[in-house]
Specification:
Helix content is 19%, strand content 47%. The protein is of the alpha+beta class. An eight-stranded mixed beta sheet has the order 2-3-4-1-5-8-7-6, covered by helices on one side.
Length: 133
Amino acid sequence: MFIKGLDHISIIVSNVEENIRFYKEILGFKIVKDFYDEKEKARIIFLDNGNSMLELIAPDERPSKGDKVSWEERKKGGVEHIAFLVEDMDKIYEYLKSKGVEFILGPLEFSEGKYGYFYGPEGVLLEVIWWKT
């Protein structure tokens, strides 16, 4: 199959420093990436514990046009999406499209790979992601 496993769980946070402290000091995660994403209009922090990766998203106060979900929904906090690691973005895109899945964003290329978003059952936001390395 095309899905290799879960890549990361993404969490919208209102207090980014409190969340970093919790996941680092209490749960033992380490920061592997910390950057500001202009497209998302948010600070994004990836944390890893060797087996699992979390993505903390701290959106700006003002929403930007074209957010994946409404600002009202995003600012509530909680899990934003589930990301599945894939071996080949082009193949998974064609496969999912053939099954009637409609991508709401992407696949888009970024410096380290490709990603795309679509909704699963019950409206859960799902991501497929491929990393170059």
